[in-house]
Amino acid sequence: MNFVISSHMKKIQMVDLNGQYEDIKDVVNNSVLNVIESTTFINGPEVHSFQSALENYLGVKHVIPCANGTDALQITMMGLGLKSGDEVITADFTFAATVEVIALLQLTPVLVDVNPDDFNINIGAIKKAITPKTKAIVPVHLFGQCADMDAIMEIAKAHNLYVIEDNAQAIGATYTSKNGTKTKAGVISQIGSTSFFPSKNLGCYGDGGAIFTNNDDLAHTIRGIVNHGMYKRYHHDVVGVNSRLDSIQAAVLNAKLPRLDAYCNARREAANKYDEAFKGQEKIITPFRSGSDNNHVFHQYTLKVNGVDRDALAQHLNDNGIPCGVYYPIPLHSQKAYQDSRYDEADFPVTNQLVKEVISLPMHTELDDEQIAFISSTIIDFING
């Protein structure tokens, strides 16, 4: 294919936060400066305005901002009153934060396999894993695409389980239910959480997170938990933590939230261009999209390679100035911290295969056609070389 790189092509970034910043620089700088000048660093007006704006965007009654996405998951489980020994089912193929908080709260993580196409939690595996001790299911909307929430909510209803959406990678996605109802990811179930880590589709310039629910009582409980268990100063009614979104990060998020749909559309357009470039390449399996077009917001653009040395490909990309990522190289059930004699390797055929095949390419709002052409041609040349 021999794509010739031009002398003026921008340096390729896995995530181009600087390019995105340039577009919103004045708004961000002014907002951050206002926070500093006002000295309202904790729970300032920016936090409240962001909370309200995100509630409107998601169509949810309550958004409770917090310090990061991992805290958001932990606080959610605390708010639901889950107790030591309760079993929580989640996906084996995801980032460790999801299982980390389950273990931290002395709940029992139950890891299950995922689908080979969309990489999301497998419905049959959920059903098989349910026991009398099961209290919750945590679907992770992986890489920007919603899990099969219709099926998950049906299972939860039949077994009286909580569903906690881990929406750290899919904020902005819209899930279309089989009855035609459209709902934003993260607010389909009783409660959801997200991360505003800088590389996310809606990211701040540090750590940040939030919890979503339409349940008034649950929202009240969680508002206490994030602030040391206080509803009234120095009155600690529940066991809490210190987890607050600071005003500077809220100021950044206020600048970005009105642009979130445009950011997601830019990612979809980049994904479509990648797809087109890889057409007819039998050894490359491009990302599967389930449901409607806006169900996937491409937090990651993740290929599966078949009959290719994935690690050698990753090295080849790096050698050519193309960053890439392997999300995730080791299944959670194989991680030292989460190994358990209950797990049988035969129950994780998909995850065990995916960790050898997946590779994520640069994906962000600033990708241009020349960069995509160079990335894709470099991959094709290696595979067919």
Task: Lay out the secondary structure.
Layout: H1 17-38, H2 45-58, E1 62-66, H3 69-79, E2 87-91, H4 97-104, E3 108-112, H5 123-129, E4 134-138, H6 149-159, E5 162-166, E6 174-176, E7 182-184, E8 191-195, E9 209-213, H7 216-225, E10 230-232, E11 235-236, H8 247-256, H9 260-277, E12 284-285, E13 301-305, H10 310-319, H11 349-357, E14 358-361, H12 369-384
Parallel strand pairs: 2-3, 2-4, 4-5, 5-8
Antiparallel strand pairs: 1-9, 6-7, 8-9, 10-11, 12-13, 13-14
Structural description of this entry:
This protein has 385 residues and is α/β, with parallel strands linked by helices. It folds into two domains: 21-258, Type I PLP-dependent aspartate aminotransferase-like (Major domain) (Aspartate Aminotransferase, domain 2, 3-Layer(aba) Sandwich), CATH 3.40.640; 260-384, Aspartate Aminotransferase, domain 1 (Alpha-Beta Complex), CATH 3.90.1150. Helices cover 38% and strands 15% of the residues. The chain is built from twelve helices and 14 strands. It has a seven-stranded mixed sheet with strand order 1-9-8-5-4-2-3, with helices on both faces. A three-stranded antiparallel sheet has the order 12-13-14. Strands 6-7 form a two-stranded antiparallel ribbon. Helix 1 (17-38) packs across helix 8 (247-256), helix 3 (69-79) crosses helix 4 and helix 9 packs parallel to helix 12. The radius of gyration is 21 Å and the shape is globular. The N and C termini lie close together (10 Å). The mean pLDDT is 96.
